[in-house]
Every structure is written in structure tokens, then in C-alpha cells.
Amino acid sequence: MLSNEELAAVIAVGHETRNVEFKAGGSLSDKSYVALVARAGLALANQRDGGNIVLGINDRSPADSPGLSQEQLDQWTNLDAVADQLNRYCDPPLILRLEVREHPNGKPVVVVEVGEFSEIPSLCVKEYPGVLVLGQLYTRSLRKPESSIYHTHNEMREVLDLATQKGLRRFRETAVGAGVLWTGAPTDKEKFQEQIDAATAAAELNHVTSVAHFRHLIYPQSFDARKIPRRELKSSALDSAVRLRGWPFPYVNDPRNGEDFIGEESSSMHHTEGWRFYTSGLFADFRAVGDWPNDWDSFGGDAETSGNIPVWFAVLHFTEALEFASRLKSRLAIAEPLVVRFEAVNVANMKLVVADPRRGGFHQDYTYSSNSWTSDEILITDEVVVSGTRPLAAGAAKELFEQFGWTGVTLDLLQGIQESNLDGGSIR
Q: Of 3, 85, 175, 387, which is most buried, counting CB atoms within 10 Å of its CB?
């Protein structure tokens, strides 16, 4: 997404670039104007890294542009409405983000960021006389900054190479997932795991990773080391943070800067945690279980254990992590699903406890014999963003508790813990 400084630099050049197209102001209800924006979007989507359409700047005199009216600003910052209007012309749909920026003359403009296509190039699926041709592939010309259906062999090769690379990547992921031996370069999943391993080994997180802890891992399906501009990492984490219990998930105050990530560590009472957010889109959260007493009102158990894990600890943190992932997907406008995976590490011989004075304790010990646990992968799709993530969190917690031997756990019970502790319930 263009910053104000970057926008000013392009305007100073005096003309559009291959990655930036200017459009004078127009209404979202003006079909001819929307068709022009859609054509630009189609062309930008079909090149590597996509590009930006800046609304409110005249391409013939960028420095003397009037910007957008308040009515136009309101229209073009409504992502649902903009996506609906533009994607009537595009298949697969465009991957869009919208932000208000300021022209150097002080006038407001809107930047429409268009992501490169996810798997196959986007084609025009609806005609608009004089602007869009049904069935055509649009690209940005290498000769001059314009959107066109007339392609040189280099422009067409660029699109085909990009589609081929994405197809091979997807094929390889499918083959590896099916158990087919594949040698050579690491898969996307392996690249994310390399970053997860690097975060786990970080000295700053040793106070968490050396003890019993949970990991909440969130990442796109495809790996791109530069998927998110570094300058947007902190604002994206802040804007997506979840505050369902008072303490935010994640805690973002003054992150440290790494080579390809930002991260932060904090410790306050029972909140000993740390996180890393990479430009690849990987968000890795680590939080220590801490010390919790036995249940005090019933069977405490006399088995030798290495510590206790409160039931609510997994339920509520899984709930917060999935809600954060849902918000992050919307904030970053990532078209592909986000993958969420939960892990528990250094938990051998730990015991489940209720750890809540309002509830009765267990009447037998539920302990875990292995040192670690990994959940099934959960996909955060656009449909999940709309329908909600809490049932998925309860399902993941149920999967974990059954590993402890608590076969009587039900989704209704776990969803009751969610309801009583979140959104105005007790704060732990």
C-alpha cells in the first residue's frame, strides 16, 4: 500500500508508473467510471506484486488534482461495496485493500491496492462498451504505463510464468500432503516452519519456550517473504488485536525490529508471552502456561505431575487467536485462507484443572504423557470470517482435552466457558 511519502514521490515524477495508475475522482454509482477502475484493477492483478490505483488524481496533471469529495471518499472506502462493484467484471475476483491518503496539496485521495492473482489470471467477465471486452486478459504494458488487451510476447510470458509458478507450487503442496516424496527446494509450509523454528530459538523468547507453553501459529497458505510491507506490520497487529478479556491478544506496545519481522515480549502476572510477526504473513505467538493450583473444592488428585493446565487457558486463548486471525485476514485483504495451528510444548505429565472457584473440580486426574501436542490445521476462509470462529476454537480445545483422557468433554461445555468469560464475563 502506497504511503503518503511514496505517493508524493510518484506525483513528483509527473506521470503514472507500471505499478501505479491515476484516476480522477468519480462516483461508485457511475458505471462507466467503475468500469475504468475495474480495467485498471484487472491489469494490475495480472502482474507480479499487483499495484495501486489512486482515485482523485488526474493522470494529465497529477500535481494539480482536486482529490475526492466527501461523498466519493465515503463510497470508495467501503470495501464490501467497492469489491462488489469491481468484481462484477473480474474472475477470479480482485484482491483489494483500500486506504485514504493525502495528496501533497492536502486533498484526500483513495488508494486501491490490487494484489496479484492467487492461482490463475483474472479475466474480464462482463462487457462495458468502449472500456471492457468480455473474455479478455488485461495487462500493464511494458512500453508505457497503461492497461491494455494488446500484449507483447514479454508481457504474455510474464503472466504465464507467474501462473505456472503458482500452479507448480500448489501441485507440490498437494503432492507432499498426499505423502509423495519430493526433493529439492523447500515447500511453502517448510519455509514457514523455518521461520517458526527461528522464532522458537530466539534468546528473547527463551523465558517462554523453555517452559510449558502454547503456540498459536497463523500464516497464509502460500509463502511470499515480502507479502506484507514491513511498515504495515505494527499497524496490522494493532488493528487486529483482540480485547475480549481486557488483556489484548497480542500485546502490542513497542515491538523490536528484526531482519524480516517485528516482535515483542511481555510478562505481567499470568501473562508471560512473546510474539513474532513476519513480512511473510506468519504470526507466531508463544505464551507460558504458568503455575496454577490444584482444584480446591473436590478431588485434587495425588498423581505426580509436572504442573497444571487450566481448562480455560486453552479454550480462551484458542478463541482469541482465531478471532485475531479472522481480523488479520480482513485487515490484510488476503484472498487465500489463513492457516491456524495450535501447539502445546513441554507439557509432559501436566494435569488439567478447572482453576475456577465458581465451578466444581474434576473427580479424577487427566494428565498428558507426551511432551507436545499439535492441533489439526484450521483454515480461516472468507466464510469463516463472516460466520465466526468460536465453534472452531471450542473444537480445537476439545481435541486437546481428549488427548488428556477427558472423553466426557462436550462442545456445549466449552462454548459455555467462552460465553461466561468473554464479552463482559469475568476477566482472568
A: 85
